[in-house]
Predict the structure of Zinc-dependent peptidase.
Amino acid sequence: MLQQLKSWRRRRVLRRHAIADPLWDELAAALPVLQGLDAGERERLRELTTLFLHDKEFYGARGFEVTPAMALHVAVQACLLILNLELDLYRDWSTVILYPDTFVAPREETDEAGLVHSSRHELAGESWDGGPVVLSWADAAPGASPHGPGTNVVIHEFAHKLDMRTGSANGLPPLHRGMAVEAWSEIFTAAFEQLLRQVGQGRETLVDPYAAEDPAEFFAVASEYFFEAPAVLRHEFPQVYRQLALYYRQDPALRAEPPEGAA
């Protein structure tokens, strides 16, 4: 009975809140990350995006006006991560907040002596455990890539949300049956330590060095590259790429390859 009610609600939302064709077509053309999706994937993504927009509320900070196109732009990328997963992975929170530009967030850290240190950080995005996703529109807008090719603040913050399904973000999201936690941990730890050494030695890296902050940031940055620059991630960290392909149940590198016979 419960499943029937959920199916009925889903059909009603999709019927009553369908995304207008012109708005959808404009968005699909503006986002390279959606290129290569087949017709079935595009339709599934459209349905997930419709349901996401119905379930979540978007607010503008500092008087910023969030337009339907802005909300759609964020929602479709959030749903790209769960294209072959479940919308329920985004349950237990309800709000997306957009700032016009970067925002300042206070931080408190306790050192080994028990002293509390306060600081303020300028951010382009933030995910709260059980709370909202906060984004700078200047960094999330179409064409924005403030930290170079392969970076995407929307994908980054929603990857954190998936990571948080096991509790606090630690770089280990809830894995599917058949995926080994030991293999994931070994592969991601080795890749993280490799990047940490490269950054520590002052070497130039193909992947955003912010990934070397901690394992949670490594997972989020790796997810950015998985979708935005899959060939780079597959070249630099092939085993990480394979684990993410298993987790997200997608292969963006394959989608990005030209069809056979193409010039």
